[in-house]
Amino acid sequence: AGSFDPITHGHNWMIKQGALLFDELIVVIAFNPDKKGYFTPEERLAQIQDQIKAYNNVKILLVPDRYVADVAKENNCQYLLRGIRNLQDFEYEKTVERVNLKINPSLQTIYLTPPVELAEVSSSLVKSLVGFPGWQKLVSTMVSPGVVSGFLSKMHLGVLKSAWENLAGNDAVSQKWFNKIIQHHSEAHRFYHNTG
Known about the structure:
- By secondary structure, the protein is mainly α.
- Helices cover 50% and strands 11% of the residues.
- The strands form two sheets. The protein has a two-stranded parallel ribbon. The protein has a two-stranded parallel sheet with strand order 3-4.
């Protein structure tokens, strides 16, 4: 379970280990109210789907409004797989484990530590690097090419939105028309162009 905003090579490593350890692995896209999402839930889902094609025992759930421990109970899951990169992660995860046990006493948490080259990779770090000169080369060592493309699309969309607001303003009517134009611009049959 995680916010996967975006999915990183560290997440991919955890998914691979989980797919090897368990008969079935459920990747739960959960939502942390303390974090403002960069990618929409649907974009995160698509990014993860792109990463798990090789596994026939992995499925994904979008869970915007329930505790992960309850989702585990609803899906007859006995184990929660969590990654620990450092001492701060360990302290945080032990607290989360105790709370989860109050919600679902039969849920056991299993911790894995990533290989050293992934120990510093996090979604927050990736997002903090985007936009600076040379960011694509650096970020591509931490996420898939599809995620890098997602960042580029978001950045181009931001430029378009800024230009639109300079031209048409930033009121409700203007935003409605901007969204409508982008929606039509992004239709599947318009594969020959995108917001980039």
